[in-house]
Amino acid sequence: DADVTQTPRNRITKTGKRIMLECSQTKGHDRMYWYRQDPGLGLRLIYYSFDVKDINKGEISDGYSVSRQAQAKFSLSLESAIPNQTALYFCATSDGGTGAYEQYFGPGTRLTVT
Amino acid sequence: GENVEQHPSTLSVQEGDSAVIKCTYSDSASNYFPWYKQELGKRPQLIIDIRSNVGEKKDQRIAVTLNKTAKHFSLHITETQPEDSAVYFCAATDSWGKFQFGAGTQVVVTP
User: Measured between beta carbons, which residues in chain B are less than 8 angstroms from residue A48?
Assistant: First the structure.
């Protein structure tokens, strides 16, 4: 779905480096999410934002931070990367309002920390 | 918080047979239950969803059933085809739309 984009698509970095993953969407959705995917563990929520002024921790936020620069942009930062942060990272968006709605995923960023 | 368990972790089926994946959830307030399909190297995509006021929903060869009392829901794929091979994730949400995903089921359809 070209409406949710992520950059970079692949990144190799060294332990201790700071790295930023970016997500942009043209769907006009208020809600944005960052997930991490590891084999056998499914998709785990790192951070989520229900509007520009709202930032919430997910189940695995330690070692990560986020910034919601605009309705359409939500960035994930690893302050000091470590090898066990090697994973596939997905950004997702959904409509706002009350209740739950389908989440649309970006293409993913494969991050390797050496 | 919500906890979602998904079984089995892998499922091998003969082409044309049916596949069933089961999920249980812990939060009785959960009200939306989507199923996502993730093909190799691709992003997860919604294939079917069900809300807590409905017991069953069908879309061609796929169906989802929900038992709120027992807090479990299932995905049924009939007449499986090779293109059904993928990883399938269930999820349950709270009323604010935050998802808790299951660990995934690798489905392999053999010709």
Answer: 98
Structural Rg of chain B based on CA atoms: 13
DSSP B42-95: S--EEEEEEETT-SEEEETTEEEEEETTTTEEEEEE-S--GGG-EEEEEEEE-T
**Contact status of B87 with chain A (Cβ, < 8 Å):** no
Q: pLDDT for B47-96, tens place per residue?
A: 999 998 889 999 999 999 999 999 999 999 999 999 999 999 999 987 67
Q: Do B97 and A101 touch (CB under 8 A)?
A: yes
pLDDT in tens, B80-91: 999 999 999 999
Neighbours of A25 (CB within 10 A): 21
DSSP label at residue B40 = T
pLDDT, tens digit (0-9, with 9 covering 90-100), for B26-47: 998 898 999 999 999 999 999 9
Residues of B in contact with A110 (CB under 8 A): none
